[in-house]
Amino acid sequence: MRLVTYNVEWFSNLFDDRGRLLNDAGWSGRYNVKRFQQIEALGIVFNALDADAVMIIEAPDSDRRRDGAAALEIFAETMGLRSRRAVMGFVNDTQQEIALLYDPDAMTVEHDPQGEPRFDQDYEIDLDVDAAPEKVRWSKPPLELAVRTKDGVNLRLIGVHAKSKAPHGARTDAGVMRIAIENRRKQLAQCIWLRERVDDHLDQNDRLVVLGDFNDGPGLDEYEKLFGRSGVEIVLGVDDEADLFDPHAAAMIGRVPGPVPASARFWLADQKRWMETLLDYVMVSPALVDEADRWRIWHPVDDANIAEVPELVSALLTASDHFPVSVELDI
What we know:
This protein is of the alpha+beta class. It has a single domain (2-329), classed as Endonuclease/exonuclease/phosphatase (Deoxyribonuclease I, Chain A). Helix content is 28%, strand content 24%. The protein has helices spanning 35-49, 68-79, 173-203, 224-227, 231-236, 247-254, 286-289, 304-307, 310-319, and strands at 2-7, 53-59, 85-88, 97-102, 107-111, 123-125, 134-136, 143-149, 154-161, 208-213, 264-268, 273-277, 280-284, 292-297, 325-329. The strands form 4 sheets. It has a 6-stranded mixed β-sheet with strand order 3-4-2-1-15-14, with helices on one face. A 5-stranded mixed β-sheet has the order 5-8-9-10-13. A hairpin with a 4-residue loop joins strand 8 and strand 9 (154-161). The longest helix has 31 residues, at 173-203. The protein starts with a strand and ends with a strand.
C-alpha cells in the first residue's frame, strides 16, 4: 500500500463554487502558472504517484458554498485516478483544507477525531513560562482518520498542516524577530498537542501514520536554539522510547553525511535564487516500522528515476512548491 502526503499550492483556485475544474488560461495561485497548466501538471503527478491514498495539504476549500471533497472527487474522475474518494474533517476558514483522496477498493476511511480537547477546540499551554497559560488553536485542524484495509488491517492516519513560522507582516528587523519567535512558540505548542495524541495511540499499540507539512524541521532556523528542539522532533519523540520514525527526519537529526533531503522549493526574490528545505514528513509508529519501506521524496532532480522522465520533472515543478513524499506499507 502506497501512502503519500502532498501539499498542493492553492489547489482551491483551480475549482469553481460547484467543484468543477477551471481548466482555462486564468492565473492560478502559483506564480506565473495558469490554471490549465497547473491542472495538467497535477494530473501527471497524481497518475505517476498511483497511490492508494494521498493526504492532500492545502486541499480545495469547503464552506457553505463550496464542497472541497466533491471537488477532489471530480478531479480524480477527470484524471482517471483509482484514488477517487475523498474525506475531510474539521473545515477551516483559510481556503486550505486537509483531505484524504483514497482508493475505496483498497480501504474504508472514516473521520474519527480522538481525545480532549479535539483539534478544532482550544488547547491551553504556558508558552512563555509566566504561569499564565495561553490558548492555542489550529488554523487547520489535523485530520484524524480510522482506516481499515480490504484485508482487515486497521490503521490510524493523522494529516497535519502545522503553523508557518514565517514572519508575515513584519516591517522592521525587530518585528521580524518578534513575530518569528511568537510563531515558533505557537508551532511548538501545536506539536506538543499533537504529540499528546500520538502518545495516546502508542499506548494502544496502534498502527499509526502521521503525515503532512510541519513547516519545520531539525536545524531549520536560528530560533530553534531558543527552544531546544524543533516541532518535528517533538512529534517524533526523539527522547522517548516509543518514537515515530521517518528516515528523512532521522537523517536531519543525526546530520548523516551525504545529500540533504528536501521536499519543498521556494524562490528567494531578494537573493535571486531557489531555497530547498525539508518540510513534509511521513512518520510511522513502532507497530508499523517493520512493515514500512521505500520512503521517497518525489524530487524532480534528486530522484534519478524521475530526472529521466522530462514530462514528470516539468509537472512536479509546475504543480506545486512542494513535492510528494511517499511510503510503502506491506499490509
